[in-house]
Design brief:
This protein has 114 residues and is an all-alpha fold. Helices cover 94% and strands 0% of the residues. The longest helix is centred in the first third of the chain and has 62 residues. It starts with a helix and ends with a helix.
Length: 114
């Protein structure tokens, strides 16, 4: 084999090795960039997750102190009872007003008669 043929094959192998190294370097750099971006996203998500957990915990604590269905039902019954009592008082006051008007008219007529 002569020198030019061996140099040709050496150059081909050298080009292949350089090409493989270039591709390997590109893949490694790309993977490192992806890993860095993924780590940044993970840190941001972890921070947001911690905030969300904190807020949900606060909401759960606040919800525990809210009245339940039974409590609201009791309040509804009490409001209905008060509404009924107010209705009865209104009726009594209407009757009392009528009586007072009659007494007032009677006193006015009595004054005119004297």
């Amino acid at each position: 084999m002569d020198y030019t043929a061996s140099q040709f094959w050496f150059n081909v192998v050298q080009s292949l090795v350089v090409s493989v190294l270039a591709i390997y370097t590109w893949v490694v750099v790309r993977t490192k960039a992806n890993r860095t971006a993924i780590d940044a996203v993970n840190e941001r998500v972890a921070g947001q997750f911690a905030t969300i957990v904190e807020r949900v915990t606060m909401l759960e604590r606040d919800v525990q102190h809210l009245p339940g269905h039974g409590d609201i039902e009791k309040l509804h019954e009490k409001v209905n009872a008060i509404a009924g009592a107010v209705g009865r008082i209104e009726g009594e006051l209407t009757g009392l007003h009528s009586s007072m008007t009659l007494i007032h008219e009677h006193l006015l007529e009595r004054r005119h008669d004297d």
